[in-house]
Amino acid sequence: MAMNAAARTAQGEKRQRRLDGSASIPRVVPEIVDTKSLTVGIVGAGRVGTALGVALAQAGHHVTGASGRSATARARIANRLPDAVHRRAEDVVRHADLVIFAVPDDVLAPLVAHLGESGAFRPGVIVAHTSGAHGIGILHPATARGALPIALHPAMTFTGAADDVERLTSGITFGVTAREELRRTALELVGELGGAIEWIPDERRALYHAALAHGANHLVTLVNEAMDRLRDAGVVHPERVLSPLLHAALDNTLAMGDAALTGPVSRGDANTVASHLDTLTEHARESVPMYLALARRTADRAIAAGRIAPTAAEPLLGVLASRPDEDF
User: Fold this and answer.
1) Cα(165)–Cα(58) distance, rounded to whole angstroms?
2) Which domains are present in the chain?
3) DSSP secondary structure string for all residues of 195-242
4) pLDDT per residue over 263-298, tens digit each?
5) For the whole model, what pTM was predicted?
6) How far apart are CA 42 and CA 125, in angstroms?
7) Which of 176, 272, 290, 327 shows its CA 20 to 30 Å from the CA of 8?
């Protein structure tokens, strides 16, 4: 089953003539690849790239090199990927069978374009990026030169701490976009990390990523807002107050959907919501637009789910409509 990069290129390719400028470029179609035989390079030794490098090394891969310009990135490579050579991105690509691009979304396109122009990509090299927002189209400068593209996004938040690897390999889901002939390779890679796959069409990557950012990133803002307002109310340990409540709300929502909703909006308590808006206006005006937006959306969902009848919701909707966002 095992094939190295050269064998995949020489023995396992079907050539489809593609035009890239004036040059005809082969499209390599791989045969079965034993992913454990792949050498790995990490372009971008940040939180995600380092965690993936460590996890793949633990799975038996040889991480040949990693790139990173900052002192922090160099330290991560030295401390957490001791067998990897610190290299320029071009050299990372040239010395690996599988290249992981773990760079910010807005950096990915110009970086791949630069590496394409430099001649770093070769036919048969597997090129995977960890961006949730982008599919495989952004890797065109690599695929036009025969590279094999995969979008491999771990649906997890990373802090840069040592437990990032444990989080990564704890059975999380990866949002993956890949051509049909590369799906088995993607399945094996994710399987080595202990994960599961959701196949995301290339044209739905932005929607997929928007959903994750809305649910996870905005949750951070929402929880911090709640802790700030509890401190304003005199609560000494807001995290202790919120932790069991938020965990229960999250668990119930994941299990029950809109049926998990509780609180004044779900009951149509217009006077309570009006009181909330009054006190926020007095003590934390910056929180009012966010409260209004979420309360309005919560009311819409509660009505649609049958949690509250439209007629019963009228007083509540009136309160929410009477506070225009522009006043804040």
Assistant:
1) 10
2) 5-200 (3.40.50.720), 208-327 (1.10.1040)
3) -EEEE--GGGHHHHHHHHIIIIIHHHHHHHHHHHHHHHTT-S-HHHHH
4) 999 999 999 999 999 999 999 999 999 999 999 999
5) 0.86
6) 13
7) 176
